[in-house]
Structures are given as structure tokens and as C-alpha cells.
Amino acid sequence: MDFQTKIPTAVILGPALVAFCLVALVRHRRDASGWSGGPLVVRAVTALYAAAVASLTIFPLWIYGGMYRNQAEWYTQIQPIPLLMADITMVPNVLMFLPLGFLLPLLRPHVTLRRTVLVSAMASLSIEALQMLQYIAFANGRAVDINDLIANSLGGLLGYAILRAAQRTTATRTALERLTLSARTTA
Predict the structure, then answer these.
(1) Spatial contact of 37 and 106, defined as CB atoms under 8 Å apart
(2) CA distances to 7, 39, 154 from 16, in Å
(3) For residue 172, which phi and psi values (nearest 5 degrees)?
(4) Rg (CA), the chain
(5) Count of CB atoms within 10 A of residue 130's CB?
(6) For the chain, how long is the longest CA-to-CA vector?
(7) DSSP secondary structure code for residue 66 in this structure
(8) Reported pTM
(9) Helices 91-107 and 146-166 meet at what angle, rounded to 10?
(10) Strand 144-145 vs strand 78-79: parallel, antiparallel, or unpaired?
(11) DSSP assignment of 100-138
């Protein structure tokens, strides 16, 4: 049977964001630590950021069957050699993970550079693995590239560096501490 079906982004991410809002509301009303004021703002921005990354890398989800199905073998969709085809197209991947490197230490103030880069790499690896699974299951044409993993990890590193550089000025450090103050006292 020949078919192509699109699962829109909003069908999956809309309910996920609503669920986040409900959890945030319940925790805020219960005066849970880190769920009011600045820390709640950081959590909400992080949830929106995660939804944006998912919408760029995973959704919309196309499912193909029959003659519409991509006929290339799944392993041909993997670019395993680092920097072999590196070019300017890596820049958006760096930029996409910059906010993660910036937000992670705001969520968890004691996070180190090493841990931030590791989380960035693991998040990127998860995205690439999901894209590969989508290709295998739905033949949606997504490819897996080691350069994306490198660029995303670099983006996390640069985001962390930008945050730490911004914290060197008193005014910025004070503003950022207001966003993380109650998270620090309880984390």
C-alpha cells in the first residue's frame, strides 16, 4: 500500500508543553523549591527551547509506505567520518546548542564545563539516534552525521563560555543570580 502521512509538530509538542505548564503550576502552588520567580522563568525558557530543538530536529514526523518509502539502506544515511564534509552548514548546529550551554548552569548552578559539554553531546547523540530510528522505521529521509554531534557539543561549550564570561560583570552576574537564587539555596 502506498501512503505518506504527516504527524504535525503541535500534535506531540503541544501536549508536552501543556503537561510542563501543569507540572509547573502544581509545583508553584505547592511552593516547591525552584518553581517560582526566576528559577521558574529559567525552567519555562528551557522547556520552550527543548520544544524548539525537537521541532527542528525530529518533527514534523513523516511516515512513508509503499512506493513513497525511501529505498536507500539505513546505513547509507550515516556520515561517520568527522569533518570529512564539514562546511558552513555546521554553524546552525553550533547555534542551536548554544542556549543549552547557557541554560544548563542556570538550572543547576554547580554544573561544570565538562558536564555541560557531556550533556550537550548526549542530547545531540540522542537526536541523531532518534533520526536514525525514524529513518529505519518510517523511511523519512533523515541522515545521521558525526559533524552534527561535534557542532552541537561545540555549541554547548560556547554557551557555557558565554554565560561564564557574562557572569564576570557585576550587573549581569546580579541579574543572573536573581534567576537562579532560590535554585541555589536548595539544589
Answers:
(1) no
(2) 15, 20, 28
(3) -70, -40
(4) 19
(5) 15
(6) 64
(7) G
(8) 0.87
(9) 50
(10) parallel
(11) HHHHHHHHSTT--HHHHHHHHHHHHHHHHHHHHHHHHHH
More confident residue, 96 or 68: 96
Q: Which helix (H) or strand (E) holds 144?
A: strand 144-145
Instruction: For 84-107, give one letter per residue: b (16+ CB within 10 A) or e.
Output: eeeeeebeebbebbbbbbbbbbbb
What span, in angstroms and rounded, lies between the C-alpha atoms of 35 and 107? 11
* pLDDT tens digits, one per residue of 118-175: 999 999 999 999 999 988 888 776 778 899 999 999 999 999 999 999 999 999 988 8
Task: Please check whether residue 95 is in contact with residue 154, taking contact to mean a CB–CB distance below 8 angstroms.
Answer: no
pLDDT of residue 136: 85
Question: What pLDDT digit, counting tens, does each position of 4-32 carry?
Answer: 889 999 999 999 999 999 999 999 999 99
Quickly tell me which residue has 525514524 as its cell. 134
185 or 42, which is more confident: 42
Would you call 161 helix, strand, or coil by DSSP? helix
Question: Residue type for 149, please?
Answer: L
Estimate the crossing angle of helix 146-166 against helix 170-186, to 10 degrees.
Answer: 110
